[in-house]
Amino acid sequence: MEANSVDFLHRASYKEVFKLLTKSVTALTSFFISCTALADHAEQNNLFESPQQYCKLKPEADYGKIPMGSLETIASPPGWIGFSPKVGRIVGKRGMFNLDSLYEMSNGTESARFRINETNFINGSSYIGNMAWVDGKSLTEPGFYRFYEVKTKKKIHEKSITMVGDSITWWSSGRYFRCMLEKQIPDIGFTGPHTDIYGFGHAGEGGNKTKQIIARINKIKRSDYYFILAGTNDWQIKSPQKTVKNIKIIANYLSKKGGSVIISTLLPRMDKHDATNVEVNKLLQTWNGKGCNCQIVDLDQDFRKLENKDQYYWDAGLHPNIEGYKKIVEILAPKIERAINQGSPQSVHHKISRM
Fold first, then answer.
1. Cβ contacts of 30 within 8 Å, gap of 6 or more
2. Domain boundaries, the chain
3. How far apart are CA 212 and CA 42, in angstroms?
4. Which of 73, 178, 241, 243 is 20 to 30 A from residue 148's alpha carbon, by CA?
């Protein structure tokens, strides 16, 4: 999956479905709403509390705005903004919108700021979606708006951590990952070359295999801690040994920058490629971080103990839903916290169900 779009197969399925629909705005909106409702139902089933209730995009310090132009929006489903076909293709690799920036839109009377987690281009119209709005204020009525890219200044934290990985690090329900971890470990700041919709930095890029992370590793700046969750896309390589070798390269490179490295075992997959993840995890545990300033934390075994694990994924068994990320954070937060604080008695872990 590309960092600035949905997974290729995911996008392809959307297009195939839309070919069967009429081109009317009503049908388009109905489709999006049904997809959103289905995803929300799958993600929120049996949830005691949704992170949507407390994950908010807070105001950010800025140092200027870059005008993007006046664009016409059309009737869109909740969580999305659609643009008139006259606007053309303004999303994608060379599009106007990316998944890292803060944006502002104004109708001349009101303005609102937002971040996005997904883009799409369907039946001649561009869409931006999975949005978070500053202070919850949104502008969604169809019409002409002036759009701006807002330049922001990152807050400096006493301790910093950079999460390195693929789509599981940030995409889809992964947009709640850092927000939930912050509730668990509040005294650390998230940094990285990318920014999620709630303003947390990260170094995740969708679809990345470990070799692709190595290719972009020089873009990851020094951090006090690094958290690596990578390798589930390496199933095509069919060599767990090569995957672990690449993870060691990543870990050693980051360690030499001066930070401590926390490496997670891979999340179980619910498909035929799970056997590769199992073997990678065994090799990681055997290595145990020897030879670098690294620690291994085990996500795999605790997650496998959960009953009906497939309920924690929204797709064929690769990407967790909201409930899945809650379980992931419940497992990982105390382990990451211990790794950071070295078992300090002042460290306190709060259950997500109490948030």
1. none
2. 1-153, 160-354
3. 31
4. 178
Strand-pair category, 294-297 with 260-264? parallel
Q: How many helices (H) and strands (E) does the chain have?
A: 9, 15
DSSP 8-state symbol, 75 = -
> What are the 10-residue block averages of pLDDT along the chain, 355 residues in total?
41 42 41 43 47 88 95 95 97 94 97 96 96 94 98 89 97 95 92 96 97 97 97 92 98 95 97 96 97 96 96 94 96 95 46 44
Signed CA dihedral, 260, 208, 319, 104: sign only: positive
Distance separating alpha carbons of residues 88 and 126, to the nearest angstrom:
7
Task: Report how far residue 1's alpha carbon sits from residue 8's, in angstroms, rounded to the nearest whole number.
Answer: 6
Q: Shortest CA distance to 17 belongs to which of 1, 42, 2, 34?
A: 34
pTM, entire model? 0.82
The beta-strand segments (E) located in the chain are 62-74, 80-83, 102-106, 111-115, 118-122, 125-129, 132-133, 143-152, 160-165, 189-191, 194-195, 201-204, 225-229, 260-264, 294-297
Fold of 160-354: Rossmann fold (3.40.50)
Q: Is the dihedral of CA 288, 348, 196, 28 positive or negative?
A: positive
DSSP assignment, residue 204?
E
The residues, any chain, with a CB within 8 Å of residue 317's CB and separated by 6 or more, are 269, 270, 271, 274, 310
**Cα gap 97→112, rounded to integer Å:** 16
The confidence score (pLDDT) of residue 351 equals 45
Helix (H, G, I), strand (E, B) or coil at 179: helix
**With left for phi above 0 and alpha for psi between -120 and 50, is residue 227 left, alpha or beta?**
beta
- Cα–Cα distance measured from residue 287 to residue 245, given in angstroms and rounded to the nearest whole number: 10
User: Which residues, other chains included, contact 94 with Cβ-Cβ below 8 Å and sequence gap of 6+?
Assistant: none
Question: What is the number of alpha carbons within 13 Å of residue 345 lying toward its C-beta?
Answer: 0
Phi, psi at 260, each rounded to 5°: -85, 140
The two structure tokens encoding residue 316: 């064929």
- Start-to-end Cα distance in the chain: 32
Sign of CA dihedral 174, 180, 185, 191: positive
